[in-house]
Amino acid sequence: MYPYLKQIMCLLLLLNLVSNVFSIKCWNCRSNNDPKCADPFDNSTVPITDCVQEKGLQHLPGIRPSMCRKIRQKVNGEWRYFRDCAYLGEVGIQGDERFCLMRTGTYNIFIEYCTCNSKDGCNSSTFISPFPLLMSASLICIYFHLFTSL
Ligand SMILES: *[C@@H]1O[C@H](CO)[C@@H](O)[C@H](O)[C@H]1NC(C)=O
């Protein structure tokens, strides 16, 4: 069905490696520790992290974070926000970082991923949502990352 999937995956990984040359800083917080992490975002107490300083991921050796991410999650009617550096995935929807990927799961769970790389601290901004789920290699990578590291 997708004859070039492997090649595209490799290209994404390669682009990710190449883009590591350019470092980015991202807001790093979770709303269960700091309510200011939620929307509307208040940067006054939230730390900004240089993604170059990140330890890296055990299951993705050699991959460096090159993007910022905001995750908005609704579990049993309660919103949680996560902001951090992102390792894999594409920016926004087809490169337009104003848009977020959305996913509705079982058990009343809703997750939205907003990935950006336009500037330092870009994961502070208000993103446009909702947007239908796109099936892509990057999304699979995001899931993989989320369910193995959170
Ligand atoms: C924090 O937010 C204020 C108000 O929105 C903004 O002016 C400032 O540039 C932000 N700080 C950083 C480091 O982005």
TrEMBL record:
Entry annotated with the keyword ATP-binding: no
List cellular component terms (GO).
side of membrane
Recorded superkingdom = Eukaryota
UniProt entry keywords in alphabetical sequence: Glycoprotein, GPI-anchor, Lipoprotein, Membrane, Signal, Transmembrane, Transmembrane helix
Where is the chain membrane-spanning?
A: 127-147
**Does this entry carry the keyword Lipoprotein?**
yes
Topology of the protein relative to the lipid bilayer: Lipid-anchor; GPI-anchor
Spell out the protein name for this chain: Protein sleepless
Provenance organism: Euphydryas editha (Edith's checkerspot)
